[in-house]
TrEMBL record:
Domain UDENN: 30-572
Biological processes per GO annotation: retrograde transport, endosome to Golgi
Protein family (similarity comment): Belongs to the RAB6IP1 family.
Segments forming domain PLAT: 964-1072
Protein name, UniProt field: UDENN domain-containing protein
Protein's cellular compartments: Membrane
Amino acid sequence: MSTGFSSSSCRFADYFVICGLDTDSGLEPDELSGENFEQSPLRRTFKSKVLAHYPENVEWSPFDQDAVGMLCMPKGLSFRTQADSHEPQFHSFIITREDGSRTYGFALTFFEEVTSKQICSAMQTLYHMHNAEQYDILHTPGTEEARPSSGAQLHAAPSISRLQRFNSYDISRDTLYVSKCICLITPMAFAQACHKVLEQLHQAVTSPQPPPLPLESYVYNVLYEVPLPPAGRSLKFSGVYGPVVCQRPSTAELPLFDFPMRKMFELLGVENVLQLFTCALLEIQILLYSQHYQRLMTVAESITALMFPFQWQHVYVPILPASLLHFLDAPVPYLMGLHSNGQDDRTKLELPQEANLCFVDIDNHFIELPEDLPQFPNKLEFIQEISEVLMSFGVSPEGNVHCTEGPAKIKGFRSADMVSDKRNGNLASSPLNSYLLRENQTIARLQALVKRTGVSLEKLDVKENASSNKDLKMQCDEEELKMHQLNIQVREVFANRFTQMFADYEVFVIQPSQDKESWFSNRDQMQNFDKASFLSDQPEPYLPFLSRFLETQMFASFIDSKILYHDDEEKEHTLRVFDARVDKIRLLNVRTPTLRTSMYQKCTNIDEAEKAIEMRLTKIDHTALHPHLLDMKIGQGRYEQGFFPRLQSDVLSSGPTSNKWAKRSAPAQWRRKDRQKQHAEHLYLDNDQREHLECLFPELQLLVALDYYWFSQSFRPCIKSVKVDAKYIQEARNLGTTIRQPKLSNLSPSVIAQTNWKFVEGLLKECRNKTKRMLVEKMGREAVELGHGEVSITGVEENTLIASLCDLLERIWSHGLQVKQGKSALWSHLLHYQESKEKRDATPAGLGPPGIIHDTERRKSDAGCAMPPLKISLIQDMRHIQNISEIKTDVGKARAWVRLSMEKKLLSRHLKQLLSDHELTKKLYKRYAFLRCDDEKEQFLYHLLSFNAVDYFCFTNVFTTIMIPYHVVIIPSKKLGGSMFTANPWVCVSGELAETGVLQVPKNTLEITFECQNLGKLTTVQMGHDNSGLYAKWLVECVMVRNGITGHTYKFPCGRWLGKGVDDGSLERILVGELVTASTENEDRMCRTPPMQQSPGMMRRFVTISPNSKPKLNTGQIQEGVGEAINGIVKHFHKPEKERGSLTLLLCGEYGLVWALEQVFQHGFKSPRLFKNVFIWDFLEKAQVYFESAEQSQVTQDENYQTRVRHFCRFMRAISSTPRNIGKDGKFQMLVCLGARDHLLHHWIALLADCPITAQMYEDTALLKDHSLVNSLIRVLQTLQEFNITLEASLVKGIGI
């Protein structure tokens, strides 16, 4: 990404560098590049050196010899003979210095003949040694038995042919060539211009005719006489053979970007690019893989440029030198590029961690994605819009899979071949990358589109790539213009997506109330963006992506910069451009700015952006001085054809003293730096924030970097302007100064140990921040349920936070692994533990049912509970996960196991048990690994323990389709035991997701275990019996139900009779449940979860069994009860849908609406005669008879009254005639629920208050006879009218209304 450059420089290039073979030091093997010594010497790599660089040094950009040498030739020197190809290769690279500023390198690597006799004979010697070794290897097994027979001669033949193949260099026959590199180090990334300059310089030494001027003149010109073009201007200067043009966007345009995006789309295809883009936005670890360095750089720069206005905040190393491969172990987000040798396939690549890795095999059109990657909003329309742009330039949206094989020609290109093409990775069975399959929606829509545009996807003629055109004349400017046009069009389409998605982001930015200093020091406690409100405005399909994106570092830094820079003058370039676009959209859109729509809006300002570039390229604003003869001594400046010489350093060591572009006085430079800090270009100048993050120098980069990464996780300083915030910058810088690291070449054990120590500290800090964030969110919601604070978490966001915790655990478990096995390091460790534990437990001790506490332990728990808690067992929880057929991958299993452990409140305990096997941990992890640092490990487990303070249902709510075993126990009353009970009982269990249907329970045991699809959180149990036998009366205490996987136990209190002629004559009841908490005695062993809400208690039982003993509530208490019940329902509907609890509990649970109205009707009810119970239902039935007879006797009443009467009677008849034997109280409950559903309760209360039956059955003091109290009751009940109440099926079963 073309971000911060060395802003003191005003010259086009800072250095010209030559790298190659140092004949004085001879051939030195490059051990750090990890090459294999079994390879033939021509395939090995040798150390390259920086042979010369001009000038010696410039003050604003100190020359870093190690970094430049390593990146100019990342694989060291290569040798070839005349039989191999010698095509020059161009690549670019980035160096991020300590102060966060970047410089760019552009390198051209070519081959020169080796003239040194010593080097040639050294190569010959290496071959003799190599061949001898190979001969020994081939003949070792068979030497003893080999006899000079015809068979033996036949056997030896293949060995000789293999030796000939090994022996590919003969000093007398072959010419030896070695790689050399010329390079420009520049402050800004003008890739095309630098490519032309280097190509023409190389052409000058290889062409038969010498160039018009000595090489020094051209190098001097580009170093000292060519300025950087000013913003919004174009510049032309002279190369050796032709003009070179570069142009720079103005401060109102998208930042500078000069790499060919076309290449990325040809290599990967639109679908893969969009997936990679999504991974980058979510800060997933990304590893690019290619045998071409320039491809790595092009893809990395393109992806980060498309993120505008956001910036990659983490480790950014587009070309990772072979000597630094151990940094793939870094447990932080990174974007790195790894060079492949073109021979090994993906399977041989050992990567330290893959659980959250996006692996991109660029050469083979293949991308491997992490699991659970959310879809980018409006993905199909977005792909279509990008595809239209690409097709207008002759680029196939599918990409050109065969672009490794020469000029790009996509002719007769069939998707059937693609599907069978294994290299492409889009296997027919994989839904992930099946973009090329005909059945795919995307391709179908694209085909419809191309029919309209008249282009055929089958036969797209693509122009030959400019890069494959090796004609050494000037490349036509039209080709370059096309590149700029395609780049800007694609970038505008991407930028428009963010402008649309975040058009109203400013509304949700929380400006701090305190001054900058205290804001900065309390940064980690501050909320800077109202995420919940922003997400609540978004269309549902956007939420999975957006909720994760809002948690990223890049989004936090973007908002921080918005807070730090209030006025336009101070705003950094990116933010200013983005805000201008947002303002424009708001003006164009008539709709209210905060009203979101998922309607796709295409990009409209492509033409304008394209015109600006065309203007600059058609009318050149500045022309630099032409190259000229320098003051050189006679004989200088001559060189041999075919060899790039060392140039004359005396003439190149300094520039002209009078040149206005040369050195400036220091204060002026600072002023310029200050201005450019604000106006800079690509200059997402977030330099100070990332100053140590992206350094390429390994230890500096990854130590200071990580220090910075974790520092920024909590503080996110986004301070960019020297003028505004010098003090904070210094603070930020000081964080890194404690660990000044040695240079690249020093990879001593102590340095590596220190690197890893920083990793360990950083992981611990990240764990602390994550657990704190998750607890605050969770407690925040529970506080709302208690009436405090604002709700700020949604189901989507909770899932996001848990997914990021899983990712952190994977990174911790990947750190310092001895040998990687499988994609999930955590699951791999668990499997090892399971294996060793099962070996140890293979003794015949463990009899009895698995997962149940043995009898000795069971007695300790409360005997009345009749359902012992599940045994805590890490292995058992693993087996549950292994038995879930829907989870296919190791990463998925690890995540499911973490979710299950969190729901059971056992995560910390399980991990502690896993890590208590020290022998296993030692076997799997290196000494420096996080999991072997005892203090940090203890603190880490302690942080995880804090999750036990809150309830997560993150397993139950996510795995909704899995089969779960449930255990049901019916507990009859101890006093009136069910030993004589003769009827056959049944139950039906209902949860938030499903219900079981009727299950017969054996009457001798009264318990049953069954398996069914996940019911979700349990809400009700319907239970009853068939009234058979002599003694069909049954007093039931409660029903217990346990989830066999999560261990959650629900208690459904009953305390009522079931039987004809006893209690209210009910044969079945609907019970509302609550989660059981553990008793203190066995709290250690049980899976605890506090109750969500209480359930119908004993009060109703007292009311109906012996009315005389019922607790008398006064009218004030009854009104309060009704108010609370209604309030609970109102709050329920004001929560986000995913966060609502059970409505059934609020209606039928303890102190729910049914209970409250029961109190209303009980108040002042005339006491019945001795031994006879009268129920509310009796009163309602009498009222119904009265209304029906009044209707028949044609008593004249108004229309409204008659409608209400008809409704009331219809519901009463329907409930009375139900085939269910639910008893009188059950019928009353059903009436209240139906009345609430259809918003009729307040009408019915009004009817009943005026009914003569009330006068007969209630005392004068009764609530129903007090008009003012009845009116206030009616008003309270009317508040339910605005809510759409949906009843659980179990409550209204058998009613056809």
